[in-house]
Specification:
Layout lengths: L12 E6 L1 H18 L6 E6 L3 H10 L5 E8 L12 E4 L9 E9 L3 H11 L5 E10 L11 E6 L4 E2 L15 E4 L3
Parallel strand pairs: 2-3, 2-5, 5-6, 6-7
Antiparallel strand pairs: 1-9, 3-4, 8-9
Helix pairs in contact: 1-2
The site of guanosine-5'-monophosphate has 19 residues, from strand 5, helix 3 and strand 8.
């Protein structure tokens, strides 16, 4: 098991699911793919706060195009570790999506409810194209095919923290994605 920086003695944390070096290597590859796919039509990255902030920052630096950024905050969990099925917009976008090539940047797709909601909501705003880049996709939990163009890692259906992901606002600054086992 790879070491978890600064968190070795936290009994709530289990094994590393995706170590930092693998995250960075995969994000570099995703950045190259997006650079090739969006040549001549620079994308607008829409980050889903708060969990995607770390991924958005690394991904954007791996894309060699003049990208623009916007952020949206939605709530689907509170501090619990299971989906409520209810998605609420806490902070809406600042930019107009009309005729823009939009990429939704998500931290993790679990049931797919949040993503389905976001996709429907943003599709109504007249973008020229709308794709999704999700760092983590939990295997086998989506009721329908989530149709995600760019996926970082497929992981088992366990609750994870780190690299932007939290439990009650903790653990977002871990460099690795780690299984959360609770106390
Ligand atoms: P979904 O709507 O796909 O069930 O859930 C998506 C949202 O739930 C994610 O954007 C994230 O905020 C949260 N979420 C889902 N799985 C996990 C997890 O394993 N760990 C953490 N920290 N949040 C998760």
């Amino acid at each position: 098991m790879a070491p978890v920086t600064g968190a070795e003695r936290d009994p709530a944390l289990g094994p590393v699911v995706v170590p930092a070096d693998e995250l960075q290597a995969r994000i570099s590859t995703l950045g190259k793919e997006i650079t090739a796919d969006y040549e001549g039509r620079p994308p607008l990255l829409v980050g889903v706060l708060k969990g995607a902030f770390m991924f958005m920052s690394d991904l954007a630096r791996a894309i060699d195009l003049p990208v623009e950024f916007d952020f949206m905050a939605v709530s689907s969990y509170g501090s619990a570790t299971r989906t409520s099925g209810v998605v609420r917009i806490i902070k809406d976008l600042d930019l107009d999506l009309t005729d823009r090539h939009v990429i939704i940047v998500e931290d993790i797709v679990d049931s797919g409810l949040t993503l389905a909601y976001l996709r429907r909501n943003l599709a109504h705003r007249g973008p020229a194209s709308l794709e999704v880049c999700a760092l983590l996709l939990k295997e086998g939990l989506q009721k329908s095919d989530p149709d995600i163009r760019y996926v970082g890692f497929r992981i088992p259906p366990e609750f994870v923290v780190g690299y932007g992901l939290d439990v009650a606002e903790r653990y977002r600054n871990l460099a690795d994605v780690v299984r959360y086992v609770g106390s």
